[in-house]
Amino acid sequence: MRLDQVRVFEKPWGMYSLLKKRADDANPIRIGVIGAGKFGSMFLSQARKTPGFHIYGIADLDPGKVRTGLADVGWPQEQYEAKSFDEARRNVSTFICDDAEALIRASGMDVIIEATGNPAAGIQNALMSFDQGRHFIAVNVEADVLAGPLLAAKAKSADVVYSLAYGDQPALIAEMVDWARTCGLEVVCAGKGTKYLPEYHLSTPDTVWNYYGLTADRARLAGMNPQMFNSFLDGTKSAIEMAAVANACDLVAPENGLLFPAVGTDGLPEHLKPAGDGGLLETTGTVEVISSLNRNGSAVANDLRWGVYCVFDAGSDYVERCFADYGLITDGSGRYSAMYKPFHLIGLELGISVASAALRGEPTGVAQGWHGDVVAVAKKDLDPGELLDGEGGFCVWGKLFPARKSVTLGGLPIGLAHHVRLKRKVRQGEPLVWHDVDVDETLDAVVVRREMEQVFAPT
């Protein structure tokens, strides 16, 4: 056979080629989005430009806001005027509704993206998705940290993919960890950057905008939720994301919580190594978040506020020489080096998870075990009868615990520290436990969490 007769590219390679083939075959991936906030809107801005994607439906408590958002990200109005799922399927258009269950059950749905940020809703939507045979992308990392290992097991039993969301930091960190291990390198530490000072743990929705350099009026005009943004600031979101990374990558959660050391990119291998080798870590194979601010409030040089990183060990003299030969930044010994990505694009990158699940049957990060948990800690002295207001609120912040320590303590998960009343006085800085609050043990989220504790409790 002559070379000009050989079909070299008989089978497409890479997800983009596979997506184009799905488009050419008029067999797009049908996608449902639950929650069209910032993350969802960023994904939707790109999804209409991605071949092989069909946004089959969007469920949100405020459908009018969804339509406004779609117009803002450039969707033509005729694309989202479908009056039913049947019409959306026939016309390859989008049906907007306020019923997440109807969306999950829609005939022919392939992938559900859950972006509500509500852990109870996330767990309920995940279980329904598994029951209907839908792949499930958990933008809702709060739900993943509350019960991710059990959800992953239930998804496997249902023969569907349960996945962390690419574009969010945990999935990007998991990708780096996988890269390092596939190269035969030992992972020493993995994590992300953020803006942090110790006083932020006590921040409330009333004080949050001062730390961001905004007025309350300016934030309100921009549609910014003070409680959500406060969860980014007070350490809760960092703890949640590092618990997800520890669980997905079989890494250790620090015994006494995150340190938030002030470290720039040049200092990653020098500082994020075990204390026995001159670093800050109590052990190897752990997670940590680095601050873009020194403790006096000044900026860290070459900070990684928006990015992610992975520190790894050469493991031999030969590899140490290779690090030097190819210009890697190392610690003083030459043994430890690091890679980092200075940004994450959240929803703009989410299509990677959708394509990976639907085309390859692979998650972009998923819990492998239960190693990290996030426990509610009092921001102030709390009195009996007080109603907790959850992540980012006035009462508690979330601290990363080893799962073993959380179980021994009976720690109250931050994802369940919402709309529950205290039964005893709790001092500022004290972790809350299950017995401190009145919990409705019949709620789906509580039932699933209790089941996870029984099945996956570390010994």
Q: What do these coordinates show?
A:
Helix 6 (about 120-130) packs parallel to helix 7 (about 140-155), helix 7 packs parallel to helix 12 and helix 8 (about 170-180) runs parallel beside helix 12 (about 235-250). This protein is an alpha/beta fold and about 450 residues long. The strands form four sheets. It has a six-stranded parallel beta sheet, with helices on both faces. About 35% of the residues lie in helices and about 15% in strands. The chain starts with 13 loop residues before the first helix and ends with a helix. It has three domains: about 5-165 and about 350-355, NAD(P)-binding Rossmann-like Domain (Rossmann fold), CATH 3.40.50; about 170-195 and about 235-345, no CATH class; about 370-455, Alpha-Beta Complex (Type Iii Antifreeze Protein Isoform Hplc 12). The longest helix is centred in the N-terminal third of the chain and has 17 residues, at about 140-155.
What is shown here, in short?
The mean pLDDT is 95. The chain is an alpha/beta fold and 459 residues long. The strands form 4 sheets. A 6-stranded parallel beta sheet has the order 3-2-1-4-5-6, sandwiched between helices.
What count of domains describes the coordinates?
A: 3
**Main β-sheet, spatial strand arrangement:** 3-2-1-4-5-6
Mean pLDDT: 95
CATH class of the largest domain: Alpha Beta
Q: What kind of sheet is the major sheet? A: 6 strands, parallel
| Unreliable spans | none
What fraction strand?
Answer: 15-25%
Structural class given helices, strands, pairing?
A: alpha/beta
Alpha carbon gap, first and last residue: 63 Å
CATH architecture of the largest domain: 3-Layer(aba) Sandwich
- CATH superfamily placement of the largest domain: NAD(P)-binding Rossmann-like Domain
Query: Can you tell me the CATH topology of the largest domain?
Result: Rossmann fold
Number of strands: 14
Rounded to an integer in angstroms, the radius of gyration calculated over CA atoms is 23 Å
Please count the helical segments. 17
Shape: globular
Q: What is the subunit arrangement here?
A: single chain
Proportion of helical residues: 25-40%
